[in-house]
From TrEMBL:
Family, per entry: Belongs to the EMP24/GP25L family.
Primary location class: membrane
Compartment(s) of residence: Membrane
Protein name, as recorded: Emp24/gp25L/p24 family/GOLD-domain-containing protein
Protein keywords: Membrane, Signal, Transmembrane, Transmembrane helix
Length: 144
């Protein structure tokens, strides 16, 4: 949740599973960010904020220079935005890999347990049928 200076709620992502979001403010001021975990486990938060637009209008106006030169003046902002994207995607890939490894470990564990149970059931069936045949004589009647 983001709160403005008058304690008004500016943005709320409660109940959403989005990874990034944008919002605009009506007026400049100080913001307060609150993170609340409603789950039963501890969770980590990686927070990265990009505030405002990085335009340097004092260098020249559009009528004095062409758009290509203006883009060259703002290369630093573009590189910063690109590096922020790279960090975001690396973090997301790391988190996804952790989830994949966790799921794979659980699947392997349950598969092994299932295989052991099936082998034990087969051994039990074999011995049970063997004892049934051992209790019969050659004519097919039960021994007492």
């Amino acid at each position: 949740m983001e709160f403005g200076e008058e304690r008004e709620e500016v943005y709320n992502a409660l109940g959403k599973s989005e990874h990034r979001f944008e919002y605009g403010l009506r007026k400049a001021g100080t913001l307060r960010t609150c993170f609340k975990n409603s789950g039963t486990r501890d969770a980590g938060v990686r927070y990265s904020a990009s505030i405002g637009h990085r335009w340097d209008h004092e260098k020249a106006t559009v009528k004095h220079i062409d758009p290509t030169y203006e883009r060259l003046n703002n290369v630093e902002a573009e590189v910063s935005k690109l590096m922020q994207e790279v960090r975001y995607h690396k973090t997301r890939a790391t988190r996804a890999m952790h989830t994949v490894k966790s799921v794979n470990a659980r699947v392997l564990r349950w598969s092994l347990i299932e295989a052991v149970v099936m082998v034990c059931a087969s051994i039990y069936q074999f011995y049970h049928v063997q004892t049934l045949f051992m209790n019969r004589d050659r004519r097919g009647t039960m021994r007492v």
